[in-house]
């Protein structure tokens, strides 16, 4: 898609992008702060695929300082950085110290401090960052206690099937695991 077609598509998708006050800080941030860090094709992807609400009302760009955004980008760089932000711009809305770091720390701990493997999980299922530490740790504890898995085994499941975090422990996971146990499967088989 050419630049002019991408711009036409964006304006057609969300005409208020031309007049919204909130878009100016976004454009300035991208131009001034991310110039060397984001490819034109990535920016085009953000502008043409992101829900316009996230471009017009991006709290991170309106309420956060450039320093806070830089800290977030620097922290995420170990796990996929700009590519993660391009795929899900709303993660800039997350509080770095209160949300992102603790949520990613759970995955890093499970991985045995393997940042590359943690980045792979994030790239595969970025929505995992939507879940609170309490929620994710609840799934981890369930897999430890009910199934008898170790942290490396749990992380292996997260690498292959990260959306397991989104499944209800009681309605989905427990009945299925009970069924597998009734079929004679052991923890290693499950």
Automatic annotation (TrEMBL):
Entry keyword Transcription regulation: yes
Gene Ontology MF annotations: nucleic acid binding
InterPro entries xrefs: MTERF (IPR003690), MTERF_sf (IPR038538)
Superkingdom to which the source organism belongs: Eukaryota
GO BP, sorted A to Z: DNA-templated transcription termination
A Pfam family the protein falls into: mTERF
Keywords: Transcription, Transcription regulation, Transcription termination, Transit peptide
Protein family membership: Belongs to the mTERF family.
Protein name stated in the entry: Uncharacterized protein
């Amino acid at each position: 898609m050419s630049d002019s077609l991408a711009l036409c598509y964006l304006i057609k998708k969300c005409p208020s992008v031309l007049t919204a006050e909130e878009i100016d800080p976004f454009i300035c941030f991208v131009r001034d702060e991310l110039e060397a860090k984001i490819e034109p094709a990535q920016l085009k992807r953000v502008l043409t695929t992101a829900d316009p609400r996230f471009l017009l009302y991006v709290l991170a760009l309106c309420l956060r300082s450039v320093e806070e955004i830089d800290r977030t980008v620097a922290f995420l760089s170990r796990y996929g950085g700009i590519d993660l932000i391009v795929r899900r711009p709303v993660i800039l809305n997350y509080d770095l110290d209160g949300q992102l770091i603790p949520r990613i720390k759970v995955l890093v701990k499970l991985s045995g401090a393997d940042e590359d493997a943690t980045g792979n999980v994030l790239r595969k299922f970025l929505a995992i960052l939507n879940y609170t530490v309490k929620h994710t740790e609840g799934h981890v504890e369930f897999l430890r206690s009910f199934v008898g898995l170790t942290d490396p085994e749990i992380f292996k499941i997260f690498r292959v099937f990260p959306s397991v975090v989104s499944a209800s422990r009681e309605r989905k996971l427990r009945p299925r695991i009970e069924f597998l146990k009734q079929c004679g499967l052991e923890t290693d088989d499950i």
